UniProtKB/TrEMBL annotation:
Domain SPIN90/Ldb17 leucine-rich: 188-331
Organism superkingdom: Eukaryota
Protein's organism: Gibberella moniliformis (strain M3125 / FGSC 7600)
Protein name: SPIN90/Ldb17 leucine-rich domain-containing protein
Xref: Pfam families: SPIN90_LRD (PF09431)
Region (Disordered): 407-499
GO molecular function: Arp2/3 complex binding
Any one GO CC term of the record: actin cortical patch
GO BP: actin cortical patch assembly; actin cortical patch localization; endocytosis
Family annotation (InterPro entries): SPIN90/Ldb17, SPIN90/Ldb17_LRD
Length: 499
C-alpha cells in the first residue's frame, strides 16, 4: 500500500514538473532561429511526455497547444514556427510527437485561415493520407485528429488534382466501413469526423470535374470515388446515408449543409444510386427540405437554390416518385409560396428561384396533381395566373454539377431562421423538427355585463378592479313531506310456454 501511495505521489510530482517546464519553455525569449528550433523541440518533447502521463488526453494536449499559440515565442515568430511545424509533419513518424504537431496545425489553422492553404501548397494532403492509412488501429486519438485536420484543410482550400489522384478506392472503402462498424453508437468520436471527410472529398471531386480538361490528358477524367463506392457497394454502407440525413436535420452551419446537399444531388442524379437510401429516410429528408425551404430567410438565396436543385431529382428519380405519394399537398403549397404569389411574408421570387420551382413542378406526379385536366384552357389560365408562365427554354434542364459545386460558404457561419425566436419547435415521430405557430393571446376579461359596465373603485388614487357580485343566497322554505306509497316488490313473471 505504501508503495502505491509513493508511486501515485511521484506521478503527480512528475506531472507538475512537466507543466512547470512547459510554461518555462513557451515563456523563453528566442533571439535566433537556432533558439526557436530548440524551444520547439522542447515543446514537442514535453507535450509528448504529458500525453504519455495522462493516457493520451486530448484536452491536455490542446492545453499545451494553446499555451504555445498564446506565447510570445509563437506570436513574434509566426511564419518561421509554422514553417518548422509543417516540415515536422512531413518528416516525423512517431505517434507521440505527431500528436502534438497535428494538434498545433489544427488549432492554428482554425484561428488563421491562411494556414490551411499554405499546408496544401506544402503537399500536406498526401502526407495526411499516408498517416491516416498508417495508424488505423495503432493510435485512435491520433487517427481521429488526422481526420479532423484533413477535413478542415480540405474544406478551406481547393486541393490539387494530383492530390486527389492519390485517394484510391481502398481508402474510401475503409472510411465507409469504419462508419458501418460504429453504427451502434452515433456519439462515437470517430463517427462524424469520418463522415465529414467523405463529404469534403466529394466536394473536391465536384470542383475538379468543373475544371477545363487538361489538353495533355483529355481522355482521363477524374473519377469521383465516393459516388463510385456507393454505386458499387451502396447496399453495404447504408449507415452513412442514414447519418447524413440525420446530420442535415440537426446541422445549423451553412457550409456543412451545402456539403451534404452536394452529395445528395450527385446520388439522386446518378442512376446506380437512385435507390441507395431507404424509403423512410427519403421521407425524413423531404420533411427536412420542406421545413428549411420555408424557414430560410430571403438573404440565403444560394442555399435555397441548392435545396431546390436537390428536391427535383429526389421527387423524380427515387422511391418517392412511386405512389402513394408522400406530402404531395405540402409540396404544392411550398412551390406556390416560393413563387411569391399571394404571400406578403416572402419577397418577390428571383429568376433562378422561379426557374427551379417550375422545374420541380414539372415532376410527373406533381404536375398531374396541379392540373388534372392537362391541356384545357382553364388549366392554362390557372397556370399563368399562378406564375407558371415560363417558356420551355427557360424551364429546360440547365442545372449542372458546376451550379451545385460552385455554392460555397465560409466555415462557421450559422444558417439564420425566418421564424427567429417567435415560434415553438416540435418533433414528430420521424425526428423532423417542425416549426409551429406561436400561441394566440388569451382573450381579455370583459369590462361589462350585458351592456352594464362594472363599477370601479379607486384605492390610493388608482383603479382597483372588483370581481362581479356573488348571486344572492338561495332561499330555503318549508318543504312539504310527500307520503309515498309502499313500493311493491317487482314480481318476475315467467311467460307460459305454448303447449
Amino acid at each position: 500500500m505504501a508503495d502505491f501511495e509513493e508511486a501515485s505521489y511521484t506521478h503527480e510530482e512528475d506531472e507538475e514538473q512537466l507543466w512547470s517546464e512547459l510554461d518555462k519553455c513557451v515563456s523563453s525569449k528566442c533571439e535566433s532561429h537556432e533558439t526557436i528550433d530548440d524551444a520547439l523541440r522542447t515543446w514537442i518533447d514535453l507535450t509528448t511526455r504529458l500525453r504519455d502521463h495522462l493516457y493520451e488526453s486530448q484536452e491536455e494536449i490542446a492545453t499545451c497547444t494553446r499555451m504555445l499559440l498564446a506565447s510570445d515565442l509563437f506570436q513574434a515568430n509566426k511564419d518561421y514556427v509554422r514553417t518548422q511545424i509543417i516540415y515536422s509533419l512531413l518528416q516525423e513518424d512517431e505517434a507521440g510527437p505527431l500528436h502534438a504537431i497535428v494538434s498545433l496545425l489544427l488549432l492554428d489553422g482554425c484561428q488563421d485561415e491562411t494556414m490551411f492553404p499554405r499546408m496544401v501548397d506544402e503537399a500536406c494532403f498526401p502526407r495526411l493520407l499516408e498517416l491516416i492509412n498508417g495508424c488505423r488501429d495503432q493510435d485512435p486519438g491520433l487517427h481521429r485528429l488526422l481526420l479532423q485536420l484533413m477535413y478542415e484543410m480540405s474544406r478551406m482550400e481547393r486541393l490539387r488534382v494530383d492530390d486527389l489522384t492519390m485517394v484510391d478506392d481502398e481508402f474510401v472503402h475503409y472510411l465507409f466501413a469504419l462508419i458501418e462498424e460504429l453504427s451502434d453508437d452515433a456519439h462515437d468520436p470517430y463517427h462524424y469526423p469520418t463522415i465529414r471527410v467523405l463529404l469534403v472529398l466529394n466536394e473536391q471531386y465536384m470542383l475538379a470535374s468543373t475544371e477545363v480538361g487538361d489538353s495533355a490528358s483529355p481522355n482521363s477524367p477524374l473519377t469521383n470515388r465516393i459516388v463510385k463506392c456507393l454505386s458499387l457497394h451502396g447496399a453495404s454502407f447504408r449507415t452513412f446515408g442514414e447519418n447524413i440525413i440525420l446530420l442535415l436535420n440537426r446541422e445549423t452551419e451553412t457550409s456543412l449543409q451545402l456539403l451534404i446537399l452536394k452529395l445528395l444531388y450527385l446520388l439522386f442524379t446518378t442512376k446506380a444510386t437512385y435507390e441507395y437510401f431507404y424509403t423512410n429516410d427519403l421521407r425524413v429528408l423531404l420533411d427536412v427540405i420542406i421545413r428549411n425551404l420555408m424557414d430560410l430567410p430571403d438573404e440565403k438565396m444560394s442555399l435555397r437554390h441548392t435545396y431546390l436543385r436537390v428536391l427535383y431529382p429526389l421527387l423524380a428519380h427515387t422511391q418517392l416518385s412511386q405512389p402513394p405519394h408522400y406530402k404531395q399537398d405540402e409540396i404544392l403549397r411550398v412551390l406556390s409560396i416560393l413563387r411569391g404569389s399571394h404571400n406578403v411574408h416572402f419577397a418577390p421570387a428571383d429568376d433562378t428561384t422561379l426557374r427551379l420551382v417550375d422545374r420541380v413542378s414539372k415532376v410527373k406526379w406533381i404536375e398531374e396533381a396541379q392540373s388534372p385536366t392537362v391541356g384545357s384552357g382553364e388549366a392554362e389560365v390557372a397556370r399563368r395566373f399562378l406564375g407558371m408562365s415560363l417558356s420551355r427554354s427557360q424551364t429546360a434542364s440547365s442545372i449542372s454539377v458546376s451550379d451545385v459545386a460552385a455554392v460555397k460558404e465560409k466555415p462557421g457561419v450559422q444558417t439564420p431562421s425566418r421564424s427567429g425566436d417567435g415560434g415553438d419547435v416540435a418533433t414528430d415521430d420521424e425526428n423532423v423538427t417542425i416549426a409551429t405557430r406561436p400561441k394566440r393571446p388569451l382573450p381579455e376579461v370583459p369590462k361589462h355585463r350585458h351592456g352594464v359596465p362594472f363599477a370601479q373603485k379607486f384605492v390610493d388614487g388608482g383603479p382597483k378592479k372588483t370581481p362581479p357580485k356573488a348571486p344572492p343566497p338561495r332561499r330555503w322554505g318549508r318543504m312539504k313531506t310527500v307520503e309515498k306509497p309502499p313500493a311493491d316488490p317487482i314480481q318476475e313473471t315467467v311467460p307460459e310456454q305454448e303447449a
